[in-house]
Design brief:
Blueprint (H helix, E strand, L loop, with lengths): L2 E6 L6 H7 L2 E5 L2 E8 L2 E11 L2 E10 L2 E5 L7 E9 L2 E5 L5 E4 L3 E7 L5 E5 L5 E9 H4 L11 H11 L5 E6 L1 H11 L6 H27 L10 H16 L7 H8 L3 H12 L3 H19 L4 H7 L5 H12 L3 H19 L1
Parallel strand pairs: 1-6
Antiparallel strand pairs: 2-3, 3-4, 4-5, 5-12, 6-11, 7-10, 7-12, 8-9, 8-11, 10-13
């Protein structure tokens, strides 16, 4: 089996990674980005040290060879929360032949120190999207201000888990973390400061969701989903379709047929990913689209109503006011007034 040379993943320095994969490194507002486009493969790795003892690494690569790397480059006690959004990822301990697969949409919690080294393997010829939140225990847990970002009541119990002898825990599937990882794949090149803030904020959300899941599954023995990874992917794809085409006339029966799921599993998946029922999610997306059209077009209310899939103008006006605090007509008038004032200021 042919491997690109294994290296110690540089939590604070991408130069070793660049040595193995090639590419160029840029550092903008704390975000270190290694971009690769050569014979080894294509993609990028972005790293941010987003708090004392905390680092977030987002991997988005399509490689042409098997690739293995160690998660710890020091003898410090480290914790890693890992999430695989896409691709074939495997885990093993250093000097061990036992390898375990990390499924797409699955979480994993790893510990490493001077005696325990965790190795991640990425298979070639398929896009791999992986997020790693790395924690230096000694630094992070001595920084009391960090606890303000985490559920304090759960943090104390979580520490007991982290101090256990088990160096690895594979969790269940988690769609919420998947949505956050997708958000990290986007880049705002027009506002680099905002980009850094978003990266930091999203990394906190990912960490908080990992901790909540670990708490639920390890302490309360709660499994987040009864759905399989394949079923979750079908629901995720359906949700993206609704976002793209909110004007379609969706029904539970139609969506069940599309996803090949029962109504109960369909609702479970929507609730897990959007924290909404199917009908509430469709209504929410349509209202967001309506707001966008009111802001950016000169379409009248009736045209907007029918362009987003509603059939009743009165019903649309009622739920729009309930969500945004004013009627669509009033919102449209205020938008025109604001535009007029802005124009006068320029004169």
């Amino acid at each position: 089996m042919s491997y690109i040379n294994k290296y110690n993943c540089p939590i604070f320095n991408l130069k070793e990674l660049q040595f193995n994969l090639g590419g160029n490194i840029k550092v903008i507002n704390g975000i270190n980005t290694l971009s690769v486009n050569n014979s080894n493969g294509k993609g990028r790795i972005r790293y941010l040290n987003f708090d004392k003892g905390l680092a977030s690494i987002n991997i988005d690569l399509l490689l042409h060879k098997n690739f293995s790397f160690s998660l710890n480059n020091s003898n410090n006690d480290m914790l890693q929360f890992i999430y695989c959004l896409e691709g074939i990822s495997l885990h093993s301990f250093e000097n061990s032949i036992a390898i375990r697969k990390l499924d797409e949409l699955q979480t994993a919690f790893l510990k490493s120190d001077a005696n325990t080294k965790n190795i991640i393997h990425i298979k070639p010829n398929k896009r791999a999207v992986i997020n790693i939140i790395s924690i230096d225990k000694k630094v992070y847990f001595k920084n009391e201000t960090n606890t303000s970002y985490l559920p304090k009541s759960k943090l104390l119990e979580l520490l007991n888990i982290l101090n256990s002898n088990e160096p690895i825990y594979f969790g269940s599937y988690n769609l919420k973390i998947g949505e956050y990882v997708k958000a990290l794949l986007k880049t705002n090149t027009e506002d680099e400061i905002t980009e850094s803030m978003n990266f930091r904020a999203i990394s906190y959300f990912i960490l908080a969701n990992h901790i909540e899941q670990l708490f639920d599954e390890s302490i309360q023995s709660i499994n987040h989903y009864t759905l399989t990874a394949t079923e979750l992917k079908r629901i995720s794809s359906t949700i993206e379709d609704i976002k793209t085409n909110p004007q379609e006339q969706y029904s539970i029966e139609m969506l069940c047929h599309k996803t090949r799921l029962s109504p109960a599993k369909l609702q479970e998946g929507f609730k897990a990913l959007s924290n909404r029922t199917v009908s509430d999610f469709i209504r929410h997306i349509r209202l967001k689209k309506a707001l966008h059209l009111l802001k950016t077009t000169d379409l009248n209310i009736s045209e907007i109503v029918y362009s987003i899939g509603f059939t009743s103008r009165s019903y649309f006006c009622k739920i729009f006011k309930a969500k945004y605090g004013c009627s669509p007509k009033h919102y449209k008038k205020n938008k025109k007034l604001t535009a007029t004032i802005s124009t006068l200021k320029l004169l």
